[in-house]
Structure formats: C-alpha cells, structure tokens
From TrEMBL, chains A, B:
Family (UniProt): Belongs to the CobH/CbiC family.
GO biological process per UniProt: cobalamin biosynthetic process
Top-level lineage group: Bacteria
Protein name (Swiss-Prot/TrEMBL): Precorrin isomerase, cbiC
Residue span, Cobalamin biosynthesis precorrin-8X methylmutase CobH/CbiC domain: 9-204
GO molecular function: precorrin-8X methylmutase activity
Keywords associated with the record: Cobalamin biosynthesis, Isomerase
Pathway named in the protein's UniProt entry: Cofactor biosynthesis; adenosylcobalamin biosynthesis
Phylogenetic lineage: Bacteria, Bacillati, Bacillota, Clostridia, Eubacteriales
InterPro entries, sorted: Cbl_synth_CobH/CbiC, CobH/CbiC_sf
Pfam family, one: CbiC
Length: 205, 205
C-alpha cells in the first residue's frame, strides 16, 4: 500500500501542516516547538490559545536536564511511559511515579488523602524539584500547599491536569505562585499533553 | 485547602457535568459510558461527534474480556501503562506492546518498515485478536493488509491513531473492513483516548 512509512518524514510533514494551519501567533522559536508538539499529539489547535509558558521556564527546565542526574516526578504512569527514555538516559536523568506504589496506597488510605497527594509528599521529601502533572488536581494542590509552607521549592513544573472538577481551578491557583512553569489553562490537558511538552524540551537539547 | 479529595466523588461529579453539557445525543446506555469517559479524559466535547462505535463491537469486546486469559496488543506503551491492571488481572488478561522491543527494532530496520508495523506482524503471528491503536497509522495499515491477505482476523479493534499525516485516512480505510471496532473519525485520537475506551469497557464488567 502507498503510505509514508518513515517516522522522521511523517513528523516533518506533520509539523509543516500544523504550522501552515495554526495561523498568526506571537510564540518565540522555542515556545513554538512546544506548542507544535502538543498540537501534533492532540490534533487540537485550541492548545495554541491554552498553553501558558512562563518567561524563563524553558531555560529552567533545560538547565536542570543539562545538569543531568536528576529525577523527575510524574503524577501518572502514562507520562513515565511516554517520555523518551533514550533521551533521558543520555542525560542520566529518570522519571518516576509513586501513584501505583503499594506503600503510597497504604499511606493515602491511612491519611484519608488521594494516592496522588501521598505521592507528591514522598517525592518532595526526597528532594525532587521537577514535577509533571497530567491528571490529578489534588496532587497539584498538595504541591502548592507544600510550597506555601516552604517545604517545597520546585525549579520546574508542568501543570496540565485535565478534567471537570478542580482541574481548571487548580491550575489557575497554581499559576499565582512564582514557579518556573508551563501550564494548560482551562479544562484541557492530560498525560499525552504533558508528555509532549517534556519531549519537546528534550528535543531542544 | 478546600477541594474534593475523594477520587470516586470527583469522577461522579465529572460525569454529571459532562452529561449536563453534552446536549442531545442518540447514544445507548453502554455507548454513552464510552463517550463520557473519552470526554472525561480529554475535556473535549468534539469526541461526541467523532466516536464511531460499530454495532456489536461492545459485545465483541466484552465477550473476549469475559472469556479471560487473552492478550491485548497496543501500539504504544502509554496505552499499556494506562489500562487498569487491577481489572485486567482480575480477568486473567494482559496488555502488551512490542514497539520498544529490541528484537522488533532490528526486524523493522532490516525490512525498512516502522517498529509499529513490525510489532503488529509479531502480535498477529502470536494469534492476538484484540488490538488497540492510539498512535501509528502505519500499524493500522499493516493490520488492514494482514486482514485482506487472510492472515489476521481480529475480533475487536480500537482504531484511534492521532495526527496530521495518514491518521484520518488510515481510520477511514480501516472502517471499510467488517471488523468489530470503535474508531475516532478525523485527525483526533491518541493514547489517552484509546485507554479511556478500553477502561470504559472494563468498567462495564
């Protein structure tokens, strides 16, 4: 059958189509790479208007990744599965999630909180400074609490929980903190969006 | 802080909001469960008009899952990470992907095809009959070829590759086959959408 079988060519052509259809914008070169990769992952041009990339956030993420040897915390196993291991390994970095951890499930039950929240508490206690949220508003609120209590000081956050209860509000509240961040405003977001943002950052290196 | 921390309550309230906002539709009770879970995962109501659930497809999937002991093939590791292991294990079923397999990478290179295509060839050769596509049009075309050559006869397929090159066409072409299937028409789809469809089916059991 006659279809493009070269993944590199498919991606190149996809980005060309996205650029030609996305219309006017004010994104810089690096911002545009993130926006295009998110649209590539979702086929949803609305992300052009929903993505908020704080000034300095890309530099903050790249500095951490380039330094190497860091652990990134994600609130879903879909994110840990989706981020390019080849590139992370080359940087001696790794991405983990505690959300399916048995110990975390027990702690969450005991405290009457979500596993997502208990996972954040553990990650912060381990000194992790790079956080990815594609699912859980409760986890994002937990990180916000820990920042306000001066117990956490993340150096880079992707805040993209998706959904109808708490997601938009959690992101709006989190955005008020002076943290280097990339967020998706409103209800949209999710694990594939968060993964696309991180992979776009990795491809910049 | 004052926010809902009970995941069950969050989901219940989310589904209530989705139902109240989605407007008129002709979905039956089970179809509606799938549509609502996809909207829940994406916060994108357009899926209401993009999802195609073939008559008999839900029964086909449920029959396979209930029989138990089956292996499901997915074209991404994000899908294998996202599907509820608790429910799959209870049914003695599992979900796998060969897309990051070293052996598959070598075969793909040798044949000049994508790893996604080589993964499908291996899965078919192992007698797998339940396929999930959230990423690769080339993999979906490969399964179509194998069906037309009478080398494959899948009993249930979720066809939801996302993207700008080949995705929409691959799904439109695949839809012409008389296979029990759920597809997402047009460019949209992706791993989270495919995962939501399968989890909705699992929750019906």
């Amino acid at each position: 059958m006659n279809y493009i079988k070269n993944p590199g060519k498919i991606e190149e052509e996809s980005f060309r189509i996205i650029e030609s259809e996305m219309g006017e914008h004010n994104f810089g070169e690096r911002e545009l790479k993130i926006v295009k990769r998110v649209i590539h992952t979702t086929a949803d041009f609305e992300y052009k208007d929903l993505l908020y990339i704080r000034e300095g956030a890309i530099d903050a993420a790249i500095t951490l990744l380039k330094k190497g040897g860091i652990t990134i915390y994600a609130d879903t196993n879909m994110i840990t599965a989706g981020i390019s291991k080849k590139m992370l390994n080359a940087l001696n970095c790794k991405v983990i999630s505690y959300v399916r951890d048995e110990e975390i499930a027990a702690i969450a039950k005991e405290k009457g909180i979500t596993r997502s929240m208990a996972g954040i508490e553990k990650a912060v206690s381990e000194g992790i400074e790079f956080f990815l949220f594609g699912n859980a508003p409760t986890a994002l609120y937990k990180l916000k609490e820990l920042i306000e209590e001066k117990k956490a000081a993340p150096k880079f956050v992707v805040a993209a929980p998706v959904g109808f209860v708490g997601a938009a509000q959690s992101k709006e509240d989190f955005e008020k903190l002076p943290v280097p961040m990339i967020t998706v405003r409103g209800r949209k977001g999710g694990s594939t969006v968060t993964t696309a943002i991180v992979n776009a950052l990795l491809y910049m290196l």
